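Running low. Invent one:
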Amino acid sequence: MTTTEHASSTASIKCAQFWWEDLDRGDVIRGTGMTITDAHLIQWAGLTGDIVPLHLDKEYASTTRFGERIVHGPLTLALTLGLATQSGYFNNVVAWLGLDELRAQRPVLVGDTVHPEAELIETRPTKNPDQGIWTFAYTMFNQRSESVMAFRSSLLIRRRPAVAAA
């Protein structure tokens, strides 16, 4: 049994088994927050090879317009998607179809606490009756409720088996 609670266009999770039919345009998924630490920057740089002084060299970063180290943009993107996934709404993803309109709006700094919100802006069936597409407008916010990153992303989602068979 799946339960979705809607409160002022916000979908709240009650159960982790969600299907394409369980969200409507305008629903907003709020992901958990995370405080960015020095370890995130170091691990991301090591994992990806994105070893840039702006992210890792405190002395160099102090001479830039930011005045301190900033978080890698792709790390912020990955955290936006990952923290939204923690909501439980994405357990029936068949495939990630990509993203569009990616914009880094403000720097994320070590010590910032970020959290994502994803508004469902499009939902459409596919030729395959077992699947549908969700398109979300994602926004990552810092602790001051400032938008630090925004983009759109689409996912291929399983439809509820009873609906697909109808």
In short: The mean pLDDT is 89.
